[in-house]
UniProtKB/TrEMBL annotation:
Belongs to the PhzF family. Pfam families: PhzC-PhzF. InterPro entries: Phenazine_PhzF-like. The active site is at E47. GO terms for molecular function: isomerase activity. The keyword 4Fe-4S does not apply. This is Isomerase. SUPFAM superfamilies: Diaminopimelate epimerase-like. GO terms for cellular component: cytoplasm. Keywords: Isomerase.
């Protein structure tokens, strides 16, 4: 049996035990993939991130759910970068670095906003794919009715590093009624059975926010709900420019998430059209919670 130190940081909030928890393992180069997976399963958070050396960037990050590795995770990136910067492992004058991920090398920017450290990460080029499954069964799997779904907007799979199903909902009040039956997702998501589900609405409780959302995990991930999602929030910016406003060159807004599970957090989204596609950025702050000693075989 081995023991490894795991740091618990919350992303997208400055209040401990709000936002989205991430397990962070520093100097993880000596760990095998199996060991990383065992640690992530023991920690039990939606994602645990392992920080490694890189030959092509400042750091390499690998992300694991309790069930499997994923290519990119927004909140674990923000949490780990906030951790490195606040611990002084990234120099005080260095405000721009790069990270190596399974989707390529991505830029990271640090800045102070209202006396708080914010981390901005660029995500992968957005992709969308059609959903052709049963809307009635999809709604039922979320614990709501088909009438709660906003049929004026498309249900699509979206990806800025990780695929998720984007489900437009009419009213923000519907989200408190949602009780996901995650085990049903694979049979409904006929095109991508291992995908998570991201219901959202263009309304919010916070008058500074433009969207409200929840995020329900694939049953293969070993978790039920992701409190505040970075990659899904980023792809929502690309969704807006693709399906809601074809002419706008840029969109910037705040997503509120986590209220229904007492993990209230905020994701700042900025998306710009380019000649080759879209540049998608998300920003957020973080907070240290505690240190854990995790034992694994």
């Amino acid at each position: 049996m081995q023991t490894r130190k795991v740091l618990h940081y919350d992303a997208f909030s400055s209040i401990p035990n709000k936002g989205n928890p991430a397990g962070i393992v520093l100097e993880a180069d000596d760990l095998s993939v199996d060991s990383m997976q065992r640690i992530a399963k023991t920690v039990g958070f939606n994602e645990t991130v392992f920080v490694l050396k890189s030959d092509i960037a400042d750091y390499k990050l690998r992300y694991f759910t309790p069930g499997h590795e994923i290519n990119l995770c927004g909140h674990a990136t923000v949490g780990s970068m906030y951790c490195l910067k606040s611990l002084g492992l990234i120099g005080e004058t260095r405000n721009n670095i790069t990270i190596e991920t399974n989707v390529g090398v991505l830029p990271i920017r640090f800045e102070q906003r209202h006396d708080e450290l914010f981390v901005t990460m660029k995500q992968d080029q957005p992709m969308f794919a059609s959903f052709n499954g049963s809307v009635k069964k999809l709604a039922a799997s979320l614990g709501i009715s088909e009438q709660d779904i906003d049929d004026s907007l498309p249900i699509v799979y979206g990806n800025t590093g990780t695929w998720t199903l984007l489900v437009p909902v009419k009213e923000v009040e519907s989200f408190s009624r949602m009780k996901p039956h995650n085990y049903q997702f694979p049979d409904i998501l006929i095109e991508q059975p291992k995908t998570s589900v991201h219901p959202f609405t263009l309304k919010a409780f916070d008058n500074k926010a433009m969207m409200h959302a929840r995020h329900f995990s694939s049953p293969f991930s070993g978790t039920v709900e992701d409190a505040v999602t970075g990659t899904a929030s980023g792809v929502m910016g690309a969704y807006y420019l693709t399906y809601l406003d074809h002419k706008a060159e840029q969109i910037e807004f705040i997503v509120e998430q986590g209220l229904e599970i007492e993990k209230d957090g905020r994701v700042y989204v900025n998306v710009n059209r380019t000649e080759s596609g879209m540049d998608v950025y998300i920003s957020g702050t973080g907070v240290y919670v505690k240190e854990m000693d995790v034992s694994f075989e």
